[in-house]
Amino acid sequence: MSARCFRFDEFELDGARFELRRNGRALKLERIPLDLLILLAEKNGEVVTRQEIIDRLWGREIFVDTEHGINTAIRKIRRVLRDDPERPRFVQTVSDKGYRFVAPTTATISSNGNDSADNPTYIETLPRVGYRFIAPVMRIAVGAKGRSAAPARAWWKLAALTASVFYWPDLAHT
Description:
Largest sheet: 5 strands, antiparallel
Order of helices and strands: EEEEHEHHEEEHH
Shape: globular
Number of helices: 5
Distance between the termini: 13 Å
CATH architecture of the largest domain: Orthogonal Bundle
Strand order of the largest sheet: 4-3-2-1-8
Strand content: 15-25%
Number of domains: 2
Number of strands: 8
CATH superfamily of the largest domain: Winged helix-like DNA-binding domain superfamily/Winged helix DNA-binding domain
Structural class: alpha+beta
Radius of gyration: 19 Å
């Protein structure tokens, strides 16, 4: 699969490897903030609306506290980049609109296989797709907890099975 690799300041953001490095050293950043940083870097200089962020990170069918999720992701990005929201070098808040990546970047294409860019790999789609299936099952399982034991156990087993399918892929998918 081809993906863009962005270099800005002392950082390198590799979309194919799904990692952020500072001076060649990998930095720890969770999936959602890293997905958001990749989106912002892809649209370098353009305003990315909160709705675009929601669509990319969670999809339209997910009902979570996206406002809090976006704010938390931006805070984590700023922390790892050591960016000051008052005087941003990387991520600028555009009031009532969204965010803009403002650092000068150079983008290159990195390759980690022969898939096309339009065909995301199993691992890339895994967290978003998995959450869509696990969240409703977990809501039912938690709601069934106070009821009779047999239905509650059945829902918890279904939740565990769903999690195992989406979060522990077998070797055929890797």
